Amino acid sequence: MVKVSVEVRSGAARFDVAVQAESIKQAVSFVEERYSKGSVKVKCPIEPESLWVNDLPARRGIVALELPARVAA
User: Buried-most residue among 14, 16, 56, 64 (CB within 10 A)?
Assistant: First the structure.
């Protein structure tokens, strides 16, 4: 099982999600299904020490949502 960070862009909105899946391709598919109107791509570089998930009962799918910090105007 892998855990990767995926960037989603939809119009002016941009955010990252952490995803656990059997493969990177499956992780991207999970996000594409959830955010079908957005542009989805894996964030690189992928850190090898955080890529592999060793927990047997690890949850598959989106595990975290990271919104960008707001910038004061």
Answer: 16
Query: At 25, is the secondary structure helix, strand, or coil?
Result: helix
For residue 73, which amino acid is it?
A
The shares of helix, strand and coil residues in the chain, as percent rounded to the nearest 5, are 20, 40, 40
Beta bridge partners of 72: none
Does residue 73 lie in a domain region?
A: no
Q: Residue 42 belongs to what domain range? A: 2-66
Token output for 69? 């910090």
pLDDT by residue (tens digit) across 28-57? 999 999 888 889 999 887 777 777 777 655
Contact 6, 17 (CB under 8 A): yes
